[in-house]
Design brief:
This protein is mainly alpha-helical. It is about 75% helix and about 0% strand. The chain folds into two domains: about 100 residues, RNA polymerase sigma factor, region 2, helix turn helix motif (Rna Polymerase Sigma Factor, Chain: A); about 80 residues, Arc Repressor Mutant, subunit A. It is built from nine helices and no strands. It starts with a helix and ends with a helix.
Length: about 190
């Protein structure tokens, strides 16, 4: 059954789930839960909030089985759009910054190189979290989730040009944050 579900499209699985097939809904969950979770983690910076949001997204999908229309767009776009709405509703992300949980993996060959890598990753996570929510969303979708502009536009419900513009401005803000950060680091080293 799992092999068969792996070969089916989202549309086919949704149709079978509409008719009451639990295995089809489980296959949809298996296929997309990881991506929804990563998206929620990147938006919130909190693993516990992301877990709750992921569950809420699939509960919403279950409730919407009869009304979901595959012609309106890809299922993953629908799911990430619901995740975005749940995130805003749950965490009120209309403020510029979000606290991040520390969530780093150890075990590198060189302790020094691992520390440098982790500090860069931690810096980037903090920098992304400090972006305005509209910029943070496009960075998460286009850079971290590797969606194209059209997919991100569909998730966010905005024109493609707005996605491009926000992404360009977000990258500019991240570059400026990097410059300020490295300048401060250079000042500390020079003292």
């Amino acid at each position: 059954m799992k092999q068969m579900a792996a070969m089916e499209t989202d549309e086919e699985l949704m149709e079978r789930a509409r008719r009451g097939c639990r295995d089809s809904f489980a296959a949809i969950y298996q296929r997309h839960a990881g991506r929804v979770y990563r998206f929620a983690v990147q938006l919130t910076g909190k693993t516990t909030a992301a877990e709750e949001i992921t569950q809420e997204v699939f509960l919403a999908l279950l409730a919407a089985l009869g009304s979901y229309d595959v012609r309106r767009g890809a299922l993953v776009s629908y799911l990430l759009g619901v995740a975005r709405n749940q995130t805003y509703r749950k965490l009120r992300l209309d403020r510029p910054g979000v606290e991040l949980e520390e969530d780093c993996a150890a075990g590198a060959a060189s302790a020094e190189s691992e520390l440098v890598r982790l500090s860069d990753v931690a810096w980037l996570r903090r920098a992304i979290a400090q972006l305005p929510p509209a910029f943070r969303e496009v960075v998460v979708l286009c850079e971290l989730e590797e969606m194209d502009y059209a997919q991100a536009a569909q998730v966010l419900g905005i024109p493609i040009g707005t996605v491009r513009s926000r992404l360009h401005r977000a990258r500019g803000q991240l570059i400026e944050q990097w410059r300020v950060s490295t300048a401060r680091a250079g000042e500390r080293v020079g003292k």
